[in-house]
Design a protein that fits this description.
Elements lengths: L12 H5 L5 H17 L10 H16 L18 H4 L4 H10 L20 H13 L6 E10 L8 E2 L7 E10 L5 E6 L12 H9 L4 H6 L3 E5 L6 H9 L2 E6 L22 E6 L2 E7 L3 E6 L8 E7 L5 E7 H9 L2 H11 L11 H21 L8 H13 L18 E6 L2 E6 L3 H4 L8 E9 L11 E6 L11 H5 L4
Parallel strand pairs: 1-5, 5-6
Antiparallel strand pairs: 1-3, 2-3, 3-4, 6-9, 7-8, 8-9, 10-11, 12-13, 14-15
Helix pairs in contact: 3-13, 6-12, 11-12
């Protein structure tokens, strides 16, 4: 069961994105940014409004998929670097001014006796976490793992993870859908609460991230949660079982309450395994290329068996026996990695002197990624790639906004071709982006062409209709009536 379809088949990507970045979020950021500029006695500051904030975020998203070495190059006079779509929205001076005073919470409002390392981000963190939960129905199979936010500066929250692609940065505990990668819940690790070794951290993380699943698991349907050996121990799986949540995880040999079977030197052939059950939890030792140790409260190793294919030295495939728990663990464990893969492809993250901006970029990326994953669940929409979805979100946020005089004509938007049926014949259209076709419709003026061209709306192979009138903004020939008006209306 994947995330719920919570939108109509004709919804625009930017509208779906704004289910995560809600009006309350925009209003809060606008208020806090203007407040911080006032508190800082900013010279030459013009009050930020909601439209300009959306355009600012649109620019940041564009910078994520149109990468240049420095921000200044997007406004460069060198035609090899300048990005007109960005440069025509606002000046670089205004962009840097907004970035300088960009703020999410009031510095003066922090209580003196409460130490919250994430105070600067707290309103947005709580908001995004809440809407991630409410915008999709919890699926029946989920995985828990850590994600990393790249950061190389100084911070007491920075972690070093040598086996991760991102080795230094902020650690985020995530609970994601096993198959789609949709992020349901997360929280940032702010460091050890006390000095010395932090005992039971993995147990606490899983317990915290599954609290909101307990009622659903007991009342609605079975939920299986999968995690790796950092989190897994006997007490955790017993706790989850008692609260109606099934789970499977690899386990480290030195964990407490494991059977004596762990300490025995077993000489098993490939595909052989041994198991033992204690309470509601089964411990499994299975021999693959290496020894695999698992705990599960979802599958019984005596009953739940299967086979998997393994490549031999001569290149042939051979089926070997395997506990079902091992195969299901492998299939269900990749949810957080899937989320990271989609999020990082066109990530908006950039270097900054402000430590918390990296986390803000993560929240922005999370909102876009979750919106994209929800969009992909709908079978009634024209499928967009991750890149096309981000382009649509960015242009939808900008929505024709400009605080400066335009220096050139309208952008030539790159769009897919779309095949439609007309009078039993297939007709290929060059689709005009909705951000151009339906925005500021009053700006779409008819102009005369030097020669007749086929009308985009009504001309077919059977019935050729031509016109000397073209929409100046869309750049398509149209009959003056009724096609010109119909083309710019959403049916």
């Amino acid at each position: 069961m994947g995330p719920a379809h919570m939108f109509s088949s004709r919804i625009r990507p930017v509208v779906l994105f704004q289910k995560f970045f809600t009006d309350d979020v925009y209003e809060s950021i606008v208020f806090q940014t203007n407040l911080y500029a006032e508190q800082s006695n900013a010279e030459g500051w013009t009050a930020l409004d909601k439209k300009e904030l959306k355009a600012f975020l649109g620019i940041i998203i564009i910078m994520g998929y149109n990468i240049l070495p420095s921000i200044d190059l997007y406004w460069s006079s060198d035609p090899g670097f300048i990005v007109d779509e960005i440069a025509e929205i606002m000046t670089i001076k205004r962009f840097k001014k907004i970035l300088q005073y960009f703020h999410l919470n009031d510095n003066l409002g922090q209580p003196a006796n409460i130490t919250d390392k994430l105070y600067k981000l707290r309103p947005l963190l709580d908001s995004i976490n809440q809407v991630c939960l409410t915008n999709a129905k919890a699926s029946s199979t989920q995985s828990i793992d850590e994600s990393m936010i790249l950061f190389k500066g100084r911070s007491s929250m920075k972690q070093y993870m040598p086996l991760k692609p991102i080795k230094r940065g902020y650690k985020v505990w995530c609970r994601c859908d096993s198959y789609t990668g949709y992020l349901y819940e997360f929280y940032l690790y702010t460091g050890k609460l006390e000095t010395g070794t932090e005992e039971g951290l993995g147990y606490k993380v899983v317990k915290t991230l599954t609290e909101k699943l307990i009622d659903k698991a007991l009342e609605e349907y079975h939920i299986i949660v999968t995690f790796d050996n950092f989190f897994c121990d006997y007490n955790l799986l017993q706790y989850l079982y008692e609260n109606g949540i099934y789970s499977t995880g690899t386990v480290r040999r030195h964990r407490k309450n494991l059977p004596k079977l762990v300490k025995q030197k077993l000489k098993l052939a490939k595909g052989q395994y041994k198991w033992i059950v204690k309470g509601n939890v089964a411990f499994i030792v299975w021999q693959d290329s290496k020894e695999v140790l698992l705990l599960t409260n979802a599958f019984h190793p005596k009953v739940d068996k299967t086979t998997i294919m393994r490549t031999q030295k001569d290149g042939s495939k051979m089926a070997i026996e395997c506990p079902l728990a091992v195969k299901e663990y492998t299939k269900r464990m990749g949810g957080v990695d899937r989320f990271d893969q989609i999020k990082s492809t066109y990530s908006v993250g950039r270097r900054s002197k402000k430590w918390w901006l990296r986390i803000f970029y993560f929240l922005l990326d999370t909102s876009i990624t979750n919106a994209f994953l929800l969009y992909c669940q709908n079978e009634n929409v024209t499928k967009l790639s991750n890149l096309e979805f981000r382009v649509s979100v960015a242009r939808g946020l900008i929505s024709g906004y400009s605080s400066r005089k335009r220096r050139s004509g309208p952008a030539n938007y790159v769009c897919k071709r779309k095949a439609v049926l007309s009078e039993n014949r297939q007709k290929v259209l060059h689709v005009i982006a909705e951000e151009i076709r339906y925005t500021n419709v009053g700006d779409h003026m008819p102009v005369e062409l030097p020669s007749y061209k086929r009308c985009r709306m009504c001309s077919t192979k059977i019935k050729d209709k031509r016109s000397k009138i073209m929409c100046k903004k869309c750049g398509v020939p149209l009959c003056i009536t009724p096609c010109f008006s119909a083309f710019h209306k959403k049916s």
